[in-house]
Amino acid sequence: FVLGHEFSVIATPGHTLGHICYFSKPYLFCGDTLFSGGCGRLFEGTASQMYQSLKKLSALPDDTLVCCAHEYTLSNMKFALSILPHDLSINDYYRKVKELRAKNQITLPVILKNERQINVFLRTEDIDLINVINEETLLQQPEERFAWLRSKKDRF
Asked: Exposed/middle/buried for 57, CB within 10 Å: 0-12, 13-18, 19+?
Protein backbone atom coordinates (compact mmCIF):
# COMPACT_ATOMS: atom_id res chain seq x y z
CA PHE A 1 0.00 0.00 0.00
CA VAL A 2 1.05 3.60 -0.48
CA LEU A 3 1.87 5.83 2.48
CA GLY A 4 2.82 8.86 0.45
CA HIS A 5 6.19 9.09 2.21
CA GLU A 6 9.55 7.57 1.52
CA PHE A 7 11.05 5.86 4.57
CA SER A 8 14.58 4.82 5.42
CA VAL A 9 14.88 1.57 7.32
CA ILE A 10 17.49 1.69 10.09
CA ALA A 11 18.79 -1.53 11.62
CA THR A 12 18.76 -1.08 15.40
CA PRO A 13 19.65 -4.35 17.12
CA GLY A 14 19.65 -4.34 20.88
CA HIS A 15 16.12 -4.85 22.15
CA THR A 16 15.92 -7.73 19.68
CA LEU A 17 18.47 -8.82 17.10
CA GLY A 18 16.24 -7.94 14.15
CA HIS A 19 14.84 -4.67 15.48
CA ILE A 20 14.42 -1.91 12.90
CA CYS A 21 13.29 1.71 12.92
CA TYR A 22 11.69 3.80 10.19
CA PHE A 23 12.68 7.38 9.41
CA SER A 24 10.94 9.84 7.12
CA LYS A 25 11.92 13.40 7.97
CA PRO A 26 10.86 14.58 10.47
CA TYR A 27 9.39 11.33 11.85
CA LEU A 28 11.30 8.51 13.53
CA PHE A 29 9.26 5.41 14.35
CA CYS A 30 11.66 3.71 16.72
CA GLY A 31 9.62 0.95 18.34
CA ASP A 32 11.39 -0.33 21.45
CA THR A 33 14.86 1.10 20.77
CA LEU A 34 14.44 4.65 22.06
CA PHE A 35 11.85 5.90 24.54
CA SER A 36 11.45 9.38 25.90
CA GLY A 37 13.89 9.44 28.78
CA GLY A 38 14.93 5.83 28.21
CA CYS A 39 15.60 2.92 25.92
CA GLY A 40 14.37 -0.62 25.46
CA ARG A 41 15.41 -3.61 27.52
CA LEU A 42 17.97 -5.99 26.09
CA PHE A 43 16.07 -9.17 25.26
CA GLU A 44 18.14 -10.68 22.45
CA GLY A 45 20.80 -8.08 21.78
CA THR A 46 23.78 -6.83 23.73
CA ALA A 47 24.49 -3.54 25.46
CA SER A 48 27.06 -2.81 22.76
CA GLN A 49 24.48 -3.31 20.00
CA MET A 50 21.92 -1.10 21.74
CA TYR A 51 24.50 1.60 22.38
CA GLN A 52 25.46 1.65 18.69
CA SER A 53 21.79 1.70 17.67
CA LEU A 54 21.09 4.66 19.94
CA LYS A 55 24.10 6.50 18.51
CA LYS A 56 22.62 6.06 15.02
CA LEU A 57 19.28 7.47 16.12
CA SER A 58 20.84 10.30 18.11
CA ALA A 59 22.69 11.43 14.96
CA LEU A 60 19.41 12.21 13.17
CA PRO A 61 18.42 15.88 12.74
CA ASP A 62 17.57 17.97 15.81
CA ASP A 63 13.96 18.47 14.72
CA THR A 64 13.25 14.73 14.42
CA LEU A 65 9.96 13.75 16.06
CA VAL A 66 10.58 10.58 18.04
CA CYS A 67 7.55 8.28 17.92
CA CYS A 68 8.27 5.39 20.26
CA ALA A 69 6.15 2.33 20.94
CA HIS A 70 5.25 2.89 24.60
CA GLU A 71 4.40 5.68 27.02
CA TYR A 72 7.09 4.98 29.62
CA THR A 73 8.18 8.60 29.96
CA LEU A 74 7.22 9.17 33.60
CA SER A 75 9.00 6.08 34.91
CA ASN A 76 12.01 6.82 32.69
CA MET A 77 12.24 10.34 34.07
CA LYS A 78 12.05 9.05 37.64
CA PHE A 79 15.05 6.88 36.81
CA ALA A 80 16.88 9.83 35.21
CA LEU A 81 16.28 11.87 38.38
CA SER A 82 17.72 9.05 40.49
CA ILE A 83 20.92 9.30 38.43
CA LEU A 84 21.16 13.09 37.94
CA PRO A 85 18.94 14.62 40.65
CA HIS A 86 20.30 18.16 40.22
CA ASP A 87 20.08 18.35 36.41
CA LEU A 88 17.82 21.29 35.51
CA SER A 89 16.69 19.90 32.15
CA ILE A 90 15.75 16.57 33.69
CA ASN A 91 13.92 18.23 36.59
CA ASP A 92 11.98 20.58 34.31
CA TYR A 93 10.97 17.79 31.95
CA TYR A 94 9.99 15.50 34.84
CA ARG A 95 7.61 18.18 36.18
CA LYS A 96 6.09 18.66 32.72
CA VAL A 97 5.65 14.91 32.19
CA LYS A 98 4.18 14.45 35.67
CA GLU A 99 1.58 17.16 34.95
CA LEU A 100 0.64 15.67 31.58
CA ARG A 101 0.33 12.13 32.92
CA ALA A 102 -1.74 13.34 35.90
CA LYS A 103 -4.25 14.60 33.32
CA ASN A 104 -3.98 11.28 31.44
CA GLN A 105 -2.33 13.09 28.50
CA ILE A 106 0.45 11.69 26.34
CA THR A 107 4.02 12.96 26.27
CA LEU A 108 4.80 11.67 22.78
CA PRO A 109 6.14 12.31 20.23
CA VAL A 110 9.22 14.14 21.50
CA ILE A 111 11.79 16.27 19.70
CA LEU A 112 15.18 14.57 19.40
CA LYS A 113 17.11 17.74 20.30
CA ASN A 114 15.30 17.83 23.66
CA GLU A 115 15.67 14.08 24.12
CA ARG A 116 19.45 14.39 23.91
CA GLN A 117 19.29 16.72 26.94
CA ILE A 118 17.05 14.63 29.22
CA ASN A 119 17.76 11.02 28.26
CA VAL A 120 20.66 9.65 30.31
CA PHE A 121 21.14 6.81 27.80
CA LEU A 122 22.03 9.42 25.16
CA ARG A 123 24.40 11.27 27.52
CA THR A 124 27.12 8.67 28.14
CA GLU A 125 29.79 11.21 27.12
CA ASP A 126 28.36 13.97 29.35
CA ILE A 127 30.76 15.00 32.14
CA ASP A 128 28.01 15.26 34.78
CA LEU A 129 26.90 11.70 34.09
CA ILE A 130 30.49 10.44 33.96
CA ASN A 131 31.15 11.98 37.39
CA VAL A 132 28.09 10.27 38.89
CA ILE A 133 29.05 6.89 37.44
CA ASN A 134 32.66 7.33 38.60
CA GLU A 135 31.41 7.65 42.18
CA GLU A 136 30.49 3.94 41.97
CA THR A 137 32.83 2.53 39.35
CA LEU A 138 35.46 3.76 36.91
CA LEU A 139 34.29 3.11 33.38
CA GLN A 140 36.38 4.58 30.59
CA GLN A 141 34.23 3.95 27.53
CA PRO A 142 30.78 5.44 26.77
CA GLU A 143 29.61 1.95 25.81
CA GLU A 144 30.56 0.65 29.28
CA ARG A 145 28.71 3.55 30.90
CA PHE A 146 25.66 2.70 28.80
CA ALA A 147 25.78 -0.94 29.97
CA TRP A 148 26.06 0.25 33.58
CA LEU A 149 23.02 2.52 33.16
CA ARG A 150 20.96 -0.18 31.45
CA SER A 151 21.77 -2.66 34.21
CA LYS A 152 20.85 -0.10 36.87
CA LYS A 153 17.55 0.67 35.07
CA ASP A 154 16.73 -3.05 34.92
CA ARG A 155 16.86 -3.10 38.73
CA PHE A 156 15.10 0.26 39.24
From this structure: buried
